[in-house]
Amino acid sequence: MTDVTRMTAAQVAGLISSGDASAVEVATAHLDRIAAVDERVHAFLHVDRDGALAAARAVDEKRAQGEELGPLAGVPVAVKDVIATRGIPTTAASKILEGWKPPYDATVVERLRAAGTVMLGKTNMDEFAMGSSTEYSAYGPTNNPWDLGRIPGGSGGGSAASLAAYEAPLAIGTDTGGSIRQPGAVTGTVGAKPTYGGTSRYGLIAFSSSLDTPGPCARNVEDAALLHSVIAGHDVRDSTSIPQPVPDVVAAARLGATGDLTGVKLGLVKEFAGEGAEPGVLAAFRESVEALVKLGAEVVEVSCPHFEYALPAYYLIAPSEASSNLARFDGVRYGLRVGDDGNRSLEEVMSLTRDAGFGPEVKRRIILGTYALSSGYYDAYYGQAQKVRTLITRDFTTAFESVDVLISPTTPFVAFPFGSRTSDPYQMYLADLYTIPTNLYGGPAISVPCGLSEGLPVGFQVMAPTMADDRMYRVAAALESAVGTLTPPTLEA
Amino acid sequence: MAAISREEVAHLARLSRLAVTEQELDQFAGQLDVILQSVARIGDVAADDIPPTSHSVPLTNIYRDDVVTPCLTQEEALSGAPDSAEGRFRVPRILDEED
């Protein structure tokens, strides 16, 4: 039998439903792969071998009894450690939550379980999803399978690297400013941020509540769409969940894969196709645009004049929301408590706990957010950022009056070496330059591999209107049909 | 001129309940200054008459049926607590002894 770890999720599901492989065999192959390579990649913070095998056995029993299996039954999936998994350690890669086992499942996890997918474990990330490289994980970084000396992107670098290392065919990420798409871009994998409110935030450890969006990661567009359709949809437990049907993203991906984009109008974001990006990234992007034109798409240049203010707006809005959300880590209800010697006050214990439990980037953002929200600065910073958010949204809605989707590179640079952007935090923030506008607007966006620059993967971003997630899958699948998927190095010892 | 002083950072850290060290203060003050100088250009955008957006997908009056559903048991709710007693979260003292 061919190595199941090299197959697509759709192929693996097919093998299991036809009986050519058991879910236990598939799970075992992936667990063995993790055991063989994860010491070098460090995509996982926790591997749940027993839980995965039990879930796989349940799928095999269902099949033996003739029960109908869902489209992803028995397919292994890795879950970002910011998402609550009942009884399985969930740390958000922070020391403040070390050893915490949630007493409940997030909605996306509940849906993954109901679909019969097999959760392999929890993936590494920047602490509380704040970062673009996994260098801010309290448990050490994840190494990019393309070059173990380089970053796998962030914050969801573990999820993306687990795919590129063939440790899992599917993974779940969360995207607040690009944390699904930028790791997808630099690891040569596919990452999609659904419409905000299209996937439930219930059970997601909150970073920036008006932006956080769980979404699918995969090695190809159709697999991402299959995973998207499993986790998406209205959830009464999330007050910002959209009570509307999920667009048929799987059908859209299959339509796109036929390679016909006749009648589809793409808007090339002028502001994101010039200065600021590495020449190799721009070259791969431009070649991909030409490939899309050959498939019948019409490409026009679109100006989005306020996109240049998206990064500053984001770095005021997201830290402000984070400073409030992270107030819950007070050493009382869960996680770490430091300095409780019977003499210190609650406030002292709280302050010592938070200083010991949070890493530097989290502290910087809490302080920055507290500053932006404080009286005297509120109007100039947080208030102004919210107004600029309106203008960025208007740029999107105006553009979508004349084009179907917007396109740009996903991130300005390929995977960079460890340590090259940590001394100046703002240099790290620039990794999210092209992904952030979408988060402020709320629409969906996907990153799909489009080629190599200096031997490293480049991502192509497709942004669509709110609740038109199907459009981005169609265009991304069409591009994939033209340029193919990327094959990462094998990591064999 | 610096956008933010070391003293301001120390004050904000206290408000944020972060017992930062002197070394952290030195580091953060410089870094936060760079970040603030970089984001300050948001003030260049003329937006006086623009309404703010707090949420990308406006939803109002989302109702659900008022039905009792299962919730965490007391034991589950306390399972992650660093300290508990008699079915409650135990916290360090809140008031000074002389209060």
Structural overview:
The complex is a heterodimer of chains A (493) and B (99). With 493 residues, chain A is of the alpha/beta class. Chain A has one domain (4-271, 278-303, 400-483): Amidase signature (AS) domain (Amidase signature (AS) enzymes), CATH 3.90.1300.10. Chain A is 40% helix and 13% strand. Chain A is built from 16 helices and eleven strands. Chain A has helices at residues 9-18, 23-41, 49-64, 107-114, 157-164, 181-187, 221-231, 249-257, 279-294, 310-325, 346-357, 360-373, 379-402, 425-429, 436-441, 469-483, and strands at 44-47, 76-80, 118-123, 170-175, 190-193, 213-218, 265-269, 298-302, 405-409, 445-453, 456-463. Chain A has an eleven-stranded mixed beta sheet, with helices on both faces. In chain A, strand 2, helix 4 and strand 3 form a beta-alpha-beta unit. In chain A, helix 2 (23-41) runs antiparallel to helix 3, helix 8 (249-257) packs parallel to helix 16 (469-483) and helix 10 (310-325) packs across helix 12. The two termini of chain A are 22 Å apart. The model of chain A has no long low-confidence stretch (mean pLDDT 96). Chain B is mainly alpha-helical and 99 residues long. The model of chain B has no long low-confidence stretch (mean pLDDT 90). A two-stranded antiparallel sheet of chain B has the order 1-2. Chain B has helices at residues 6-15, 22-39, 74-78, and strands spanning 84-85, 88-89. Chain B is 33% helix and 4% strand. The radius of gyration of chain B is 23 Å and the shape is flat. Chain B has a domain at 6-43. The chains are: A alpha/beta (493), B mainly alpha (99). At the A-B interface, helix 10, helix 11, helix 12, helix 13 and helix 14 of A face helix 1 and helix 2 of B.
Q: Supply the number of structural domains of chain A.
A: 1
Strand order across the biggest sheet of chain A?
A: 1-3-2-4-6-5-10-11-9-7-8
Report the oligomer.
Answer: heterodimer
Structural class of chain A: alpha/beta
Computed over alpha carbons, the radius of gyration of chain B is: 23 Å
- Tell me the Rg of chain A in angstroms: 21 Å
Distance between the termini of chain A: 22 Å
Helical content of chain B stands at 25-40%
CATH level 1 class label of chain A: Alpha Beta
Structural class of chain B: mainly alpha
Order of helices and strands of chain A: HHEHEHEHEHEEHHEHEHHHHEHHEEH
- Using DSSP, what is the number of strands of chain B? 2
Please state the second-level CATH architecture of chain A.
Alpha-Beta Complex
CATH topology of chain A: Amidase signature (AS) enzymes
What is the strand content of chain A? 5-15%
Q: Give the rounded overall mean pLDDT of chain A.
A: 96
Residues in β-strands, percent of chain B:
under 5%
What is the number of beta strands of chain A?
A: 11
Stretches of chain A where pLDDT falls below 50 for ≥5 residues?
A: none
Low-confidence stretches of chain B: none
Helical residue percent band of chain A: 25-40%
